[in-house]
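Reopening this ticket.

The earlier resolution said the output was attached, but the attachment link was broken on my side. Pasting everything inline this time so it's all in one place.
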Amino acid sequence: MVAKTTNGLVIVNTGDGKGKTTAALGMAMRAVGHGMHVAFIRFIKAWNVGEHDAAARLAPELEVFRMGKGFVVGEPAPEHCEAAREAMELVRQSLRGGRYPMVVADEILTAVGLKLVTPEEVEALLDDRPSDVHFVLTGRGAWPGLIERADMVTDMHLIKHPHDKGVMAQEGVEF
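Inline output:
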């Protein structure tokens, strides 16, 4: 049995701290536990990380789409811009298609900060979202208009990180 939502929420995980994507994955796992299908669309991260292998075990209920081409430094290359356009279209289709009661746009806010997509394009997704679909947006730099429109906003604050002491990212913790 697939659970049906009656009041989809707009959920934003933002801030400069660790845990935005991890929290979204936790929500996705919770949704799968209730029989829901989830589209998890990644805007930036292109490399293979542990959650991809874990998500594969939850397929077909949890589908991860790696749309990004990796880190953007300076002016975005054309392939990054094209990947972001394709990711936006996939988010739009996933929101409207009727298959997914939850859609996660991972690092979409970071994509705005990198000028891969505009705030207006992101807010258009909110306008076009069916009222029964949960829409989770992650990344740094949520703007006031998005925060106002969201139903739930969590701001992850960085207090301390091993990177500050030169410790590299740890497998199983950060990727």
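Reporter confirms the inline version is readable. The mean pLDDT is 91. The two ends are 32 Å apart (CA to CA).
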